[in-house]
């Protein structure tokens, strides 16, 4: 059996307890969802043959430059909490052993970013929009989806920052400065528009990963609805998000078509009581 599928099924302990009343039918539905997700194109860990070390080096450079523009919120408890949630959700993916790093950055914008190698950031503006831990898990799971499918690395490759053989051009000249110059500000790369299908794929992955982790699978859809409502009153805070992502209504429609009623009978946790409320 596919190793990722085994991990998917063995991570369902909490979910099966929550849905025990549904018995065999629930198990069959979840197994079917896992198999369909794993059978989609682009599920392999590799892209162009480059190493994980190279991927992490690229992501570290991008993350460093992004933090130079928008530093982490100075709240240790917050950062620890977000890392704990993020790493638990990431452990349900096919890349559980990647050195994942999560953080909340100082920005009033409503957005989240992922960089190759497992570097994921949520803005203060988006975090303050969240109402429970399941919603946070859904947001982080979406960004985790970008990392495990290497969506931003594909952008770099298309931009010829990574050659067709998958080797970092900067490595060929052996200079960290060259890596910096080739990647640029970092913030520009993570905020660039991905293909719409990449965003839709990350949304589907987010629902699956959140459910695997024992959360309410509809945490991300709830956030998308809230973002849609926020846009009506304050378009400035979501300007970049709408520039680089499909509209929440379109994402919800695509996600609804893909998921259907598969998770309707599954009662995951929202963990409102455990959600860390950020000080104003």
Would you write up a description of this structure?
With 280 residues, this protein is mostly helical. It contains 15 helices and three strands. A three-stranded mixed β-sheet has the order 1-3-2. Helix 1 (3-10) packs antiparallel against helix 3, helix 5 crosses helix 7 and helix 12 packs across helix 15. The radius of gyration is 18 Å and the shape is globular.
Integer-rounded radius of gyration = 18 Å
Tell me the strand order in the biggest sheet: 1-3-2
If helices are DSSP runs of H or I spanning 4 or more residues, what is the number of helices?
15
State the end-to-end distance.
49 Å
Biggest β-sheet, characterized? Answer: 3 strands, mixed
**How much helical structure, as a percent, in the residues?**
55-70%
Q: Which outline best applies?
A: globular
For this structure, the quaternary state is single chain
Structural class: mainly alpha
Give a quick rundown of the structure.
The protein is built from 15 helices and 3 strands.
């Amino acid at each position: 059996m596919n190793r990722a599928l085994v991990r998917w099924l063995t991570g369902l302990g909490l979910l099966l307890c929550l849905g025990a009343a549904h018995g065999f039918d629930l198990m069959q539905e979840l197994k079917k969802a896992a198999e369909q997700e794993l059978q989609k194109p682009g599920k392999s860990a590799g892209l162009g043959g480059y190493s994980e070390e190279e991927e992490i080096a690229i992501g570290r450079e991008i993350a460093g430059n992004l933090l130079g523009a928008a530093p982490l919120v100075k709240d240790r408890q917050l950062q620890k909490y977000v890392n704990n949630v993020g790493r638990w959700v990431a452990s349900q993916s096919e890349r559980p052993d990647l050195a994942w790093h999560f953080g909340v950055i100082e920005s009033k914008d409503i957005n989240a970013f992922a960089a190759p190698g497992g570097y994921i950031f949520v803005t203060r503006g988006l975090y303050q929009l969240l109402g429970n831990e399941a919603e946070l898990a859904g947001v982080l799971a979406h960004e985790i989806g970008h990392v495990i499918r290497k969506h931003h690395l594909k952008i770099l490759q298309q931009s010829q920052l990574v050659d067709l053989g998958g080797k970092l051009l900067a490595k060929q000249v052996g200079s960290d400065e060259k890596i910096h110059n080739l990647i640029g500000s970092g913030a520009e790369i993570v905020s660039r528009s991905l293909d719409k299908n990449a965003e839709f794929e990350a949304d589907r992955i987010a629902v699956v990963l959140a459910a695997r982790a024992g959360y309410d699978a509809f945490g991300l859809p709830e956030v998308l609805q809230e973002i849609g409502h926020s846009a009506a009153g304050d378009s400035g805070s979501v300007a970049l998000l709408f520039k680089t992502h499909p509209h929440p209504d379109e994402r919800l429609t695509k996600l609804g078509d893909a998921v259907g009623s598969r998770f309707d009978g599954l009662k995951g946790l929202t963990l409102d009581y455990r959600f860390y409320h950020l000080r104003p």
